[in-house]
Design a protein that fits this description.
Largest sheet: 6 strands, antiparallel
Function: The glycine cleavage system catalyzes the degradation of glycine. The H protein shuttles the methylamine group of glycine from the P protein to the T protein.
Structural class: alpha+beta
CATH superfamily: RNA polymerase II/Efflux pump adaptor protein, barrel-sandwich hybrid domain
Cofactor: (R)-lipoate
Number of strands: 9
Oligomer: single chain
Number of domains: 1
CATH architecture: Beta Barrel
Family: Belongs to the GcvH family.
GO cellular component, one term: glycine cleavage complex
CATH class: Mainly Beta
Order of helices and strands: EEEHEEEEEHHEH
Strand content: 25-35%
Protein name: Glycine cleavage system H protein
Strand order of the largest sheet: 1-2-3-9-8-5
Length: about 130
Amino acid sequence: MSTPEELRYTEEHEWVAVRDGESVRVGITEYAQDQLGDVVFVDLPEVGLTVTAGETFGEVESTKSVSELFAPLDGEVVAVNDAVADSPELINSDPYGEGWLIELKLSGSATPDSLLDADAYQRLTNG
């Protein structure tokens, strides 16, 4: 499975891509979407919601189960991918690209450097 080196990861199987110095894009990993199966519905937050690392910000529903989405870092939701709400299968077909979920403007001392790198995430999923 693909684990892009430039991304950071959480133990809850979200990925984080640094957009600029103060914002990140978030999605679920290829491993997560594979475990879920065909994604049929996504519940995402409203722009402007403030989230705390580890707090739920939405849900992904698949033919197998419903899974909560967890904020990887503290921040404010500044963008939501409306395309996945209309076409949730994008999470399966392109989890690291068109299947992204939200963008966060980081707050406080939140930093992606505190998350898992690709090697650590691969060790977690290969177990």
